[in-house]
Predict the structure.
Amino acid sequence: MMEKKYYTYILLTENDTLYCGYTDDVEKRFQAHLEGKGAKYTRANKPIKIVYQKEFASKSEAMKEEARIKKLTHKEKFKLFNC
């Protein structure tokens, strides 16, 4: 059986803000955000595209990375995916 993978991801929204989260299926989660079922934030700030995703072997690693990213400044977050 394949081991489940987890991802930390960042979405760019219509008004140039960023949303960070974690999931086990980035595409499926992005679709949920687009349909208004993802998070309260993305219902108010419509996501345009996935700009960053990083794979982890465990849920806790992905959650730790999400927490780390959320502490970064807007500029530092943009650096993550503009390298």
In short: The chain has one domain: 6-82. The helical segments are 26-34, 40-44, 59-70, 74-82. The chain has a mean pLDDT of 95. The radius of gyration is 12 Å.
